[in-house]
Hints:
It is a single chain. The model is unreliable at 8-29 (pLDDT under 50). The longest helix is centred in the first third of the chain and has 27 residues, at 2-28. This protein has helices at residues 2-28, 47-63, 76-90, 167-183, 207-212, 330-339; strands at residues 31-43, 67-73, 94-96, 110-116, 120-128, 135-142, 153-160, 192-198, 221-222, 284-289, 299-300, 306-307, 345-351, 365-366, 371-372, 375-379, 387-391, 396-400, 403-404, 409-413, 420-425, 433-437. Helix content is 21%, strand content 27%. Strand 21 (420-425) and strand 22 (433-437) form a beta hairpin.
Amino acid sequence: LLENSMKYYSSKRTTMFLLLNLFVNVSFAQTQIKAMMYNVLNYSDSEVSRNKTPFLSTILDEVEPDLLMVCEMVDEIGSDYLFENAIIPYNENFQKAPFEENQSGNYSLQQMVYYNSKKLILEETRVITADTRDINQYTFKINTENALSNPIRMEVFVTHLKASTGSSNRQRRLNSIQSFVSYTNNIADDSYVLFAGDLNFYTSNEEGYQHLIDDRNPIVMIDPIDRPTPNFPDDGVDYYENYNSTYFWNNSSFRDIHSQSTRTSNNGLIDDSGSTGGLDDRFDFIMMSENFNMNTDLYYINDSYQVIGNNGNCYNSFINNSNCSGGYSQTLRDALIEFSDHLPVVMEIETPENTLSTNLISEINFIGSNIIKDYLKIIVPENINNFKIYSITGQLVDVKLTKNISDDTIIIDVKHISKGIYYLSHQKLKKPLKFIKI
């Protein structure tokens, strides 16, 4: 019996050792790319835009995107100012795509993309003319160690569809989506595709939304969070004319994914041109091709889609209302209401390939013991955020924002996770940090 017990525990130790080594190798032979879509509210080379720019710096420092897609950029001078005064101070490795004047309709507002050149290589840009505003296409190659022998490319489309209710505006949104879908006949059907923008859909029942996710399209697009509104009943009622909030995103059951409007008043704000409807619509989207859920070269990180600043408790209110407190801080929400009437949306994708980008950090130390009950305290050499917590078997348990309690000390709340052995991970860490929750 003793001999059998020894064999069992020896086998168990060997299994755990192999699992741990597998976890370390898998976790750190991969790269995450965070994509962020943001309506920057009529950003131009104006005094108003310049004065609100520091608030974007606050937002970027908190969110840490690798791919920043924006709409409502008025002019190239404004784009350059934003790049030089908010994006480069956030990350000097960022570059900007070429600025293209809008070629569709009579609208001057334009889309732009800024990207971390350590992770992404911009290979080509195109303009697809459409109803109201252009659809801008950007072909990126992931900057991996094997980029020459095994390139991984991603097609990124950014647009801003026609705003407002009414059948004519819905039709114009549909027209633009039809232009996009038609264009996808020109790209390989196994392409990785992101389609992002202020899409101005009021409900998933809209013809444009339904056409975008039609599984008969050349590239099948899906909504990463899969939160459709209930279908209109087949009862002969026109629910656009006979409005019932049950069938629209403008109801409290979707309060955690609303992205517009951050404001109920423009009084006292630097940029007073924004909408003041309160947070009650889901206008801002990042849609993705379904192969992000099917392939292993580049894949969507489950549950990484977020509406930045939305704590899920601000329905029909202003985003920095003290009653809307939660995981997103007051400082961040103050910056969001000042900068735009929209909230940014983000999602993360991952490749098992190493990029050439990551400046690894070797020295991160626990304050006190790594055996903890409620809070994990660590010392870091630079401002990094969004740590991931894995179980001993390599399963992702949580993604945690950190709270800085000094320039080099942060605290992570782990009260909610079960007792056990865990590993704290970040893409800049050379190896994970083990801690024990008691």
